Amino acid sequence: QVQLAETGGGLVQAGGSLRLSCVASGRTFSSLTMGWFRQYPGKEREFVATISWSGRSTYYADSVKGRFTISRDNADNTVHLQMNSLKPEDTAVYYCAADDSFVVSDSRGNYDYWGQGTQVTVSS
Fold it and tell me: Given a cut of 90, is residue 106 above it in pLDDT?
């Protein structure tokens, strides 16, 4: 089992920045593909970004490309999502996810482990 805990959500004005972090435990972190997803009220969870176990491969949703950066620190068992130039439409609950299949994927069905989520609110 993998336990995930997100931190860093909050309220920010449009154009501002936030950094989300997710600490993983229960499994060798360097064996996990990590991802970030977000969910709007009444909508399905959608892909934001993913990073391979080594950190050498990253992939982003078109809506965040060029504004968000995913990174990981295998020594600290942590994955980060740096969010810049935030827009009101980025307002959502953000979830950290992990997968132990070594597959880099934008499909939420590929991820077996999920955090509890952290709220990000961007005011206009």
Answer: yes
